[in-house]
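Weekly puzzle thread! Below is a chain. First person to post its structure in C-alpha cell form gets bragging rights.
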Amino acid sequence: MNLFALVLLSRAVYSLMWFFTAPVLPAVLRDFEVDPAQAGLLPAVFIIGAAVTQIPASYLGALYGHDKVAGLGMVIFGASSILLSLSPGWIWLLLFRALGGVGAGLFFSTAGAVLVALRPNAVGSALGWYNASFNIGAFAGYYWGFAAAVLGWRAALAAPGALSIALGTLLLRGRGLRSPASISRGAVAYGLASFPFWGAVYAANNLTATWLHLFRNLSEGVAGAISSAAMVSGFFGGLLGRLYDRLRRRHVLLLGAPLVSTLVYLAIPGAPLWATPLLVFLYGMSFNAYITSVYAAASRRAENPASALAIINIVNMALGLHFSYAFSWLMTQSPEYPWHMLSLLTFISALSTYIVANRLKIY
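Winning reply:
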C-alpha cells in the first residue's frame, strides 16, 4: 500500500474511534448510572488529551518524520480503544478516553503534513481527501450503535483497536518525512476564526444522537444513523478541496459555509423528523467546505504544515471543547436551547472569518 493511501485508511479508522462512543453513550450512561448532564464530559476529555499533544507532535514530526509520529499516535489510540472496553466505571472510561485523545493528537497534524508533502501542488485536494476519509470513518462510527446492539458496547469499542495498532505499525516503518521545525504564527488567526464553528460541529456530531434519543424517542441505532448524515456529506471532501484549489475568490467558501450552518441549526429543533437527516447533511457539508479551506489556506503559508494544522486544531480544541458540555447542560433546560447556541457560534465564525480573510488577503 502506498503512503498516501495508508494515511487515508488510517484517517478513516482514526475517525471511527473519534465518534464510535456517540451512539453507545446512552447505554454507557445507563450502565454506570451517570446523569445525562455529564454526557459532554466524554468528548471533552478526549479533546483535552488531543490538545496537549498537538504542538509537540508537529515538532517531533519535523525532527523524526511526520509519518512515524502519526504511526505512534495510531498505536496509542488503538490501545486506548481496547482499554475503554475494560473500564470498571465512569471515571476510568474518562481517563482511557483522554489517553485516546493523546494518540489522536499525535496523528492529526503529522498525517496531514505527510499528504501536503506528497501533493505540494494540490494542497486543497489532498486535505479534502483527508477530510473525506475522516467522514467515511465517522459515518461508520455513527452506525456503531448497531454493532453494540449485537456485541455489547464493550466489545464494540474494543474491536477497532487492533486495526489501529496494525496501521500505526506500518506507518512507524515509513521513510520519515521531515520539514523545518518552525511554528506557524499566522495559523493562530485561522484558529481563532474557526473555533466557534468547530466547537458547534463537534458538539452536534457527538450529541445529536443523544438529543434525538431523548427528545424524539428514537432508538440508539436509528438516532446514530440520522446523525451520520453529517459524515455522508464529507464523502465529497476531495471535490470540495479541488474546488478550493481552482477558485480565485476563495473567501466564498470561507464566508458562505458558516452562514449556511447558522440557518440549519436554527431549523433543526422545529423541523419534522423526515427533514432532520437533510439538515444534518447540510451542516456537515458546509463545515467540510469551510474547514478544508481553512486548513489549505494555512498550510500554503507555513514552512511546517504540521505546525499550521496543529495550531488551528489546538485553538479549536482549547476554545471549542466547552460547547459539548454546554450542549448537554442546555438539553436539560429546553430541547431548543442547544441548537440556538450552535447557530450563534457559527454566525460568530462567519464574522470572524470575514475579518481574517480581508486582513490576510485570502482570495
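Puzzle host: Confirmed. Bonus trivia for everyone else. The chain has a mean pLDDT of 87.
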